[in-house]
Amino acid sequence: MSSAMDSAKQDITRAVKFALVVIWMTIPFWVISFRTLPVKFSVELRGATGLDAVPAHDDAPISTAFNFTLHAANRRLTDRCYRRGEAVVRYSGYTVASGRTRAFCVGGKEARDVPLVAWAEGVGLPRLIRERMAADWRAGTVDLEVDVKLFRCDDNSARPTWMSCMVKSGGGGGKPPRATRCTTFGFHNWASDITPAWMQYF
């Protein structure tokens, strides 16, 4: 019995030592990954027009305009800069507006609000979609998908950052607009929400 217990203890000790060695050897990888965490983004819809329009006949186009604020929070010590950005607004899979952001930088450990305006003239939508969108607007429950692509300019790579944001809006009966977090797509984003605070200061 004693021999079996000793053998089990030795196995546990070897496993613990192996785990510690693996953790020690991979520390540089984790530090590098956490140092390059992406900026966190959220978007707030400040105003919209054209969503409640129901044309008199099926093929009549509509015009839309949206006023967003893009919130950027930089958790790095160094600046993050973007030379420009592009945005597309969709309702039920249909594109209802598009726009661009201006160039901007976010300082290290800082946050910044960036205006984003999107619009479209002559948008053709199926009548059922327009009627549903108008009804959702009156109920205050228009669900919009805002896809944003930003182009880096601080590392000479011009690498794009993609994000998808879901916002809700309406002309009546709905809750006041609020910022909703965007899902950002990139190599290091898998670690965005598990980063120990001390690693963000390397």
UniProtKB/TrEMBL annotation:
Keyword Membrane in record: yes
Keywords carried by this UniProt record: Membrane, Transmembrane, Transmembrane helix
Transmembrane portions of the chain: 12-32
Record protein name field: Late embryogenesis abundant protein LEA-2 subgroup domain-containing protein
Species this chain originates from: Eragrostis curvula (weeping love grass)
